[in-house]
Amino acid sequence: AGVRLIDVGCDHAYLDIYLANKYPTIECLATDVNANALSSAIKNIKESNLEDRIFPILTNGLEGIKIKENDFVVISGMGTNTIIEILEKHLAEIDNIIIQSNRALEDLRKFMFENNFKIVEEKIVFDKKYYIVIHFKKGKFTPELIDYWLGPIIKNSKNTNYFNYLIKEYEKLLKKVPKDSLKNLEILKKISCLKELIEKK
Predict the structure, then answer these.
(1) How far, in Å, CA of 98 to CA of 78, rounded?
(2) CA–CA dist 161, 101 (Å, integer)
(3) CA 147 to CA 83: how far, in whole Å?
(4) How many CB atoms lie within 10 A of CB 190?
(5) Nearest CA-CA partner of 156 in 185, 103, 98, 196
(6) Exposed/middle/buried for residue 25 (C-beta within 10 Å: 0-12, 13-18, 19+)
(7) Burial grade of 173 (CB within 10 A; 0-12, 13-18, 19 or more)
(8) Tell me, what DSSP letter sits at residue 67?
(9) C-alpha 142: how far from its chain's center?
(10) Which residues pair with 126 in a beta bridge?
(11) Which residue of 95, 127, 146, 200 lies most exposed, with the fewest beta carbons within 10 A?
(12) CA dihedral 139, 140, 144, 146 (to 10 degrees)
């Protein structure tokens, strides 16, 4: 049996079309709350002759979607607060979720860990800026403090993009050290952790 993907906030359905062309057994539900975006998605799906495998749905997040066991939910290009709002009501039904958030990844990881999800893969893509894509799977995980901030995969990887990302985060933190002593302590702790990781590599 093929995989079913639920692409939340599909926009023009480019991801769904790419995956359907690459993997002949995949089926996609392409959802969006914006009727204009979905209209564009429908046009693109028709032009790609993929109406039998990509099904556009006008809905807010995952509302009205029956999530089956082993479905993959994908949420990409949204802020963490929006992602959490979408997921809160549906986490019990989800086994696998792939998330690319534009901000507050620390809060996102914390939310997912607290709801019994573990990180099984984490990729960094550089295209003018760094994009982090995280695959969460239902399962127990006891994170260390640094796992909320960097994630268990990124902190141990020898991938060049990961290494450059750590350096960039390190430099960003050095510029941010505030005068307030409590915040100062927290940032200095992060700087120290990062310095140690960078030196190990």
Answers:
(1) 12
(2) 18
(3) 19
(4) 17
(5) 196
(6) exposed
(7) middle
(8) P
(9) 20
(10) 130
(11) 127
(12) 20
Residue 102's contacts (CB-CB under 8 Å, 6 or more residues apart) are 77, 78, 79
Q: pLDDT (tens digit, 0 to 9) for every residue of the chain, 201 residues total? A: 578 999 999 999 999 999 999 999 999 999 999 999 999 999 999 999 999 999 999 999 999 999 998 899 999 989 999 999 999 989 999 999 999 998 889 999 999 999 999 999 999 888 888 899 999 999 988 988 888 888 888 878 778 888 888 888 878 877 776 666 556 667 777 888 888 887 776
Read off φ and ψ for residue 104, nearest 5 degrees: 55, 50
Contact present, 110 and 147 (Cβ < 8 Å): no
Q: Which of 40, 38, 39, 44 is nearest to 18 (CA)?
A: 44
